[in-house]
Amino acid sequence: MIDQPPHDPTLDSKASATAPHEERRTIQSVERALDILEVLATGTDEMRLNEIARAARLNISTCHHLITTLLDRGYVGQNPRGRTYFLGNKTLELSRSRAAMIDLVKTAMPALRALNQSTGETVSLDVLRGADLVTLAMIESRHAVRVALDEGDKAEAAHATGSGKSILAWVPETELSRIIEEKGLRRFTEHTICSKDELIENLRLVRRNGCAIVREEFQPGVLCIGSAIRDHTGAVIGALCCALPTLRATDDAVARVCSEVKAAAVSLSLQLGGEPSALANELRAARATPERSTAA
User: DSSP assignment of 1-66, as one string?
Assistant: First the structure.
């Protein structure tokens, strides 16, 4: 969607402040499970079942059933000797994942700002979380006419966006099949690729070019260009993307932005510990004119 300069966000806060109170619906079992985790997190030592139940204000039976589920999922651990409980490894994984996200955004922001400055267009840092495409950071275009991304639908649009295709191009085919099975290939516009075989062929082109050029597959009137970023292991962990209105997407502009997005992605990958020799081919590809998709 093409948008004019953003409205004053303070108007939203004023509107919400005067809006009538809406009752929030919560799921009691989820709340109780979270209470248990918070009790264990604030405890100074391992805790017995009756201690947890008392602190969480639950009866013993309910507390036991919830802890059994949390044990099975790895969010709670148990010491068999003293029959005491503590936070499980799964909570550490979540914490590390969140920390990694924060570190990635912090490291990527200079590159994102520079890309926004050089292209003048809307740029974003996107990652795949499960089967959802998630934007971790975004800087809007400085033009009066700019791209306004629909973040709600974007989660479902890994197959129809520049960043999504840049990531999907490097996932194993079994993982790609799982994502397609879970999310499907939703049609957003008449240009959206909704065939698995056609998508796989398109992703091969993305790998050859070192970037994905996606014209009006997610939003009418919008062209986006994405390129994958890698960590110190060589694994693709996200993508940089630049979105611009098709009215500014001349052949020269697309070639220039494509080169800048690819170069920025390679530079960021090097900062994240990527192996220079492994990224050399991608750096050369950044200077090359991308092949056109026959489906475009």
Answer: -EE-SPP-HHHHHHHHHHSPPPPPP--HHHHHHHHHHHHHHH-SS-EEHHHHHHHHT--HHHHHHH
| Amino acid at position 232, single letter | H
Residues 6+ apart with CB under 8 A from 177: 196
**Cα separation of 90 and 104, whole Å?**
21
The rounded distance, in Å, linking the Cα atoms of 176 and 168 is: 7
Show the domains of the chain with their CATH numbers: 28-87 (1.10.10.10), 96-286 (3.30.450.40)
The reply to whether the predicted model has a pTM over 0.85 is no
With beta carbons less than 8 A apart as the criterion, state whether 262 and 227 touch. yes
Over its length of 296 residues, how does the chain's per-residue pLDDT go in tens digits?
A: 555 444 443 334 333 343 444 456 779 999 999 999 999 998 878 999 999 999 999 999 999 999 999 999 999 999 888 789 999 888 877 876 766 666 889 999 999 999 999 999 999 999 999 899 999 999 998 876 667 666 668 999 999 999 999 999 999 999 999 999 999 999 999 999 999 999 999 999 999 999 999 999 999 999 999 999 998 888 899 999 999 999 999 999 999 999 999 999 999 999 888 777 667 666 665 555 566 554 43
Q: Which neighbouring-strand residues pair with 85? A: 47, 78
Question: What residue spans of the chain are helical by DSSP H?
Answer: 9-18, 28-42, 49-56, 60-73, 89-119, 151-154, 162-168, 173-183, 196-209, 251-271, 276-286
Cα 107 to Cα 116: distance, rounded to the nearest angstrom: 15
237-247 b/e (C-beta count within 10 Å ≥ 16 → b) = bbbbbbbbbbe
d(Cα 183, Cα 190) in Å, to the nearest integer? Answer: 19
